[in-house]
Amino acid sequence: MNQATDLSRAGWFKSSFSNGQGGNCVEHAQLPDGSRALRDSKHPDGPSLIFTPAEWAAFIAGVKMGEFD
């Protein structure tokens, strides 16, 4: 993660699979440069992973192709 990335104003979105009962949930935010940030919704002040637009696109393509099933 780039230490210079300020996530304090990021608009975080919780997974639509989150049921609000303390399960394993992630949140993501699109950053101004097109990158994406991911974090554990139970620990919003903890570390975040930052992905470039190309990395995020490859991840989404992998999900759609069932690579992680």
Overall 3D shape: flat
Contiguous uncertain segments of 5+ residues: none
Number of strands: 4
Strand order in space, largest sheet = 1-2-3-4
Q: What is the percentage of strand-forming residues?
A: 15-25%
Average pLDDT, all residues: 86
The major sheet is characterized as:
4 strands, antiparallel
Q: What is the percent of helical residues?
A: 10-25%
What structural class do helix, strand and pairing data support?
Answer: alpha+beta
Termini separation (Å)? 26 Å
Number of helices: 1
H/E series, N to C? Answer: EEEEH
Features:
4-stranded antiparallel beta sheet; 4 strands; flat; 69 residues; alpha+beta
Present the secondary structure layout:
Layout (H helix, E strand, L loop, with lengths): L12 E2 L11 E5 L5 E5 L7 E4 L1 H12 L5
Antiparallel strand pairs: 1-2, 2-3, 3-4
Write a concise synopsis of the structure shown:
The chain has 69 residues and is an alpha+beta fold.
Description of the molecule:
By secondary structure, the protein is of the alpha+beta class. Helix content is 17%, strand content 23%. The protein has one helix and four strands. It has a four-stranded antiparallel sheet with strand order 1-2-3-4. It is flat. The model has no long low-confidence stretch (mean pLDDT 86).
